[in-house]
Hints:
297 residues, alpha+beta, Fructose-1,6-Bisphosphatase, Chain A, domain 1, D-Maltodextrin-Binding Protein, domain 2, eight-stranded mixed beta sheet, five-stranded mixed beta sheet, 7 helices, 30% helix, binds 1,6-di-O-phosphono-alpha-D-fructofuranose
Amino acid sequence: MNKITLEKHLKSADSDISKLILLLAKNSIKINKAFESQYNYTSSKNCYGEQQIALDKFADSLLIKEFEKSRLVKTVASEEQNELIEIMKAKGEFGVTLDPLDGSSCVNSNLAVGTIMGLFDEGNVMEKGSRMDAACYVIYGPLTSLVYTAKNGVHEFILNSKKEFVLKRENIKIPEGKIYSPGGLRKEFFPKHLKLIEALEEKEFKVRFSGSFAADFNQLLYYGGIFSYPAVKSAPQGKLRLLFEANPMTLIMKEAGGEGINGTENILELKPEALNQRTPLYIGNKKSIELVKKYLR
Ligand code: AFP
C-alpha cells in the first residue's frame, strides 16, 4: 500500500491551515532533537509560577519565531507567555494558541510529552473554542506522532526515519473503553467529583494518569474512557488552561465522537475572559461524559 504523508493528507484542508500544521510538524522534529540537550530545569518560572525546563523556552521561542516568519499568523497566545503576541508584519489573519511543551514535568523522568496547537483563521484566540478552525498535537514518546483535525475528522501520523509524517490512523473515533485519568489530589476533591470517581471505579475503569495531558489524551483515542482535572478546593478553577489545553483537545475529541465539558458546560462554548484562564476539564467518550453530567449537575 502507498504511504500517505501528512502533506498529501492535508491537500483536502484549507491551504493556510495546512501550511501551519506542516510548520508545526517540521519544527516538532527540531524540538524532538533538542530533548537530548535541553531537558534541565532553568531558574525561571512561567506566569503560573511553574518552573520551566530549557526545552519549554526553546520550543516556545522556536515556534513563535516560525509563526512570525510564516506571515500567516497575526497573533500568538502561548502558555509560556504572559501577553498575547501581535505580529506586525503578518499578511495573514490567523490566531494561534500554543502549549509548546505540555507535561514538561515529565521530561525529567522520560515520559511522553506533547505540543498542542489551536488555529483560528480570523485571528481572535479569545473567541469560543467552537470558532476554532483546526487543532493539532504532537506526542514525543517512543515514537513521534502528530494528530490533527481541520474539522475533517481526526487523523494520526507517525514520524519515520526519512523525517516524513506518515498516516497511521484516519478518521479516528474514540472507543467506549474504560481508562480513567484522574488529575488532582483526592483529599481536595469536592463531593460530586468524588462520587463520580467512585462510580467510575465501581464500573471497573482502570487508572492511568501520567502528568502529561497530551499523552493521556492520546491514550484515550486508543483505548477510550475519560480524563479529568476537576475543580479542587485549593484551585476552584481547576489546573488546565482553557485556551492552550482544553479548547484544542476538545475540538479533537468532538471530531473523534467524544466531548469535553467543565462539569456542566461544553468547553467549546465557553467565552474566554482571560488569556491564562483555567478550567475544570472532563474529556472523553460520550458515555463517560454522560456519567459526569449525571454526577456533576
Ligand atoms: P506542565 O506542562 O507544567 O508539566 O503541566 C502539565 C499539565 O497542565 C497537564 O499536562 C497535566 O495533566 C497536569 O498539568 C498535571 O498536573 P499535576 O502535576 O497536578 O498532576
